[in-house]
Amino acid sequence: MDFYTVFILCGFSFVAGFVDAIIGGGGLIQTPAILFSLPQYPVPTLIGTTKVPSLSGSLMGAFQYSRRVAVVGRFIGPMMAIAFAASWLGSWTLTRVPNNFMKPLALVILIGVFIYTLTKKDFGQVSHRVVTASQQRTRMWLMGGGIGFYDGFFGPGTGSFLVLGFITLIGFDFLKANAHAKLVNASTNMASALFFFREGRILFTFALPMAVANLSGAFLGARLAILKGNQFIRVFFLVLIAATILRFAWDLIK
């Protein structure tokens, strides 16, 4: 094992956990890092390896937020179960179908998200009930299926898409959206991690130290987000979305 490579990957994983805990999108840091550092391994194996640190970080974020933010318990449990199943299906599909077409589609969606968030100053600043309980249940479960599959099949930006969905479709503020997003993301990461473990596609010599680093970053990121509140998260969200757009655009034109 190359300890220098492990050290570098742990550094990226720490930053990924920190960013992911604040607004999601840690995979945009962690995934390119491992793909670049370990090009001798198949892509599904490297994606599977990142799911272990992603799971540890999302569990830490979920724990930190749930201690301070009320969770819609009667709907979030079934949503997590649906997201788990959808993520497993997405991971299975990844081992059989290329996912290159996802990047241009995600780029278009993210540009729309950035423009909307930038122009709507009160976006995610307060919680407001905009849907009935029945609509809330349906929307949360559909989100679980759609975004869960996306996470298993492609992944980058999943946390941000979950936060966006909870704000626009359910009416949560950033903090409450983050609390629910971390629970769902933990479920999707667990499904993918279990799938790739079953397939023998996890490099534990890299995955385990990266998991410790990611968890540490998630602890600090969640505490900072809770301390600073919605306005801080909104700014961080815009910066992350802009960085993601530039990253995807660069990948497409190079």
Number of helices: 10
Q: SSE string, helix = H, strand = E?
A: HHHHHHHHHH
Q: What structural class should be given to the helix and strand makeup?
A: mainly alpha
Rg to the nearest angstrom? 17 Å
Main β sheet profile: none
Organism: Spirosoma linguale (strain ATCC 33905 / DSM 74 / LMG 10896 / Claus 1)
Protein name: Probable membrane transporter protein
InterPro entries: TM_pro_TauE-like, TSUP
Family: Belongs to the 4-toluene sulfonate uptake permease (TSUP) (TC 2.A.102) family.
Q: What is the topology?
A:
Elements lengths: L2 H21 L3 H11 L5 H24 L6 H22 L7 H18 L13 H21 L4 H13 L3 H25 L5 H25 L1 H24 L1
Q: Brief overview, please?
A:
It is a multi-pass membrane protein. 80% of the residues lie in helices and 0% in strands. It has 254 residues and is mainly α.
